[in-house]
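Q: A reviewer asked whether we had any structural model of the full assembly, not just the individual parts. We don't, so I'm hoping you can provide one. Inputs are below.
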Amino acid sequence: MSRVTLPLLVLLLLVSAVAAVTLGPADITAPEVWSVILHHLGLLPESPVSRLRDAIVWELRLPRVLTALGTGAGLALSGTVMQALTRNPLADPYLLGLSSGAALGAVLFLLSGFALLMPLGAFLGSLGALALALLIAGLLGGATPTRAILAGICISALAASATSFLIFWSATGDSYREILSWLMGSLSGSLWSDAGLVGLALLVCAPIILLAGRALDAFAFGDSAAAALGIDVPRLRWTLLGATALLTGIMVAIGGAIGFVGLVVPHAVRLALGANHRRLLPHAMLVGAIFMLWTDTAARTLFDPRELPVGIITALIGAPIFLLVLLRYRRIT
Amino acid sequence: MSGLLVDNLSVHRSGRPILTSAAFTLPPGAVTGLVGPNGAGKSTLLAALLGLVPATGIARFEGHDLPTMPRRDRARLAAFVEQTSATEERLSVRDVVALGRIPFQSALFPGDGRADHAIIEAALAETGMTAFAARRFDTLSGGEQQRVHLARALAQQPRLLLLDEPTSHLDIGAQLTLLALLRHRAGRGVTVLAALHDLNLAIRFCDHLLVLAGGRVVASGPPAEILTPQRILAIWGVHARLLHDPANNRPVIVYDRVAPGARLHNPD
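A: Here is a predicted structure for the entire assembly that you could use as a starting point for your response.
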């Protein structure tokens, strides 16, 4: 089945990407989009598109579309991995507090004058939140789904209040508003450098995660079953959690705390294709990219000329689905 | 062929001994029954042999020290069927059996080749699960799930097969089928060690018995010699008689009553 669905999803992703670039206040057609792309790739010597429209496509919309695709793919991958590793259907970078930790790290670096190192701060923040979540769940007597979520709530609250305090203390005027919008989750103003950073994070982490698909299936029956199949459980767990923290950190540094993508997408794909991770991971990655692209396109076009933080839309879609997941797994939570 | 040689194997948990200086040898290509009351340490012994719990001592099989050898190599040599192994994941039966091929696949190209597929199908057929291959694992009955885990273990093509109460969820027909399957594997040179509760099944299907009580190996040998009324009384606290079954020339145990003051369960 993957032989049909994966190429189909790739096709859908390409069509969606071009379609999303055409959408917006300035009317731009798909052929124009193609000619701008081909022109900038040096395959079309003369662009038939005006300089302004060329800039709208190449400088504004294309980097944003690519950033959205990469962010969605990364968040969906992170969620899938966390759910498998913790045997917790509710695990998600947002619900476990990784996003809040990353936001705190990013704001801390930003306000102390290291704006360029913001992604590093976000990575450290998400790593710290992850370690803290596992520690708290351990103190409660083991990382059951409920305990992990409770730990996540605690960390989120703590990180959010620290973040708010930092902003209250040092941000003023425009930067205040900008930071708040970013915290709610927004891809507004994404540049090529953002798209590049997201792409780089995916390039490093996605292969590691995709190759671990089989091993993640073995985790379905618990750690000792995985170990009996020759898997180095601690090493795999820490490698994958590290990759997840890195992905989440970068995604948060670029797009803020965009919630529920890591929860909604993997569950939807699981429902359709089952939990075999060698199928699930690549599908979740592509579906996550497409989902993020369309929610972000909605965020920037629905209330034109005003822009909605995309995190509001993903939460609007995600929270009810979170409830459905809770109901479905009520036996084990 | 050396079989399994275990010497001075001990497991401590929170400072308490769970398994104390276990020492025994298992003949190669034989079915050995691991018997003993609840809490005797049967599951711990099986886990310790595979390095799944921290243990001290030696467990040599075909020239390798099982607990300390590289885990991938060990998973190619020895397969384990745990007592309970459920999941919330939506995996198909074939997905679960395919897990048995993990130790044979390279990290960079972890796909099932043609040979893997053939082995998976053979394991499904041998356990009678072919018709279930596309079913979701979590919708199966306990007995069917146990058979799927056995099929997964067979897909590992092990030389040593460890099973923790593989018959616990099976009806009597399925129990006999499973034990016949283990005998068949043993006939092809696989060394089998299975924790069993049903002593009559153990007598009938095992070449060799290992009796565990209070974390110690208290007896080891052919079933008919090991399971005497005195030992059954001493270890299980049950008065029993052994009758002779002329059909297969083996004894049959008849349980009469629990001895006064005998504990039903070891506190654990």
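A: Points you may want to mention in the reply: The two ends of chain B are 38 Å apart (CA to CA). Chain B touches chain A through 35 residues (CB under 8 Å).
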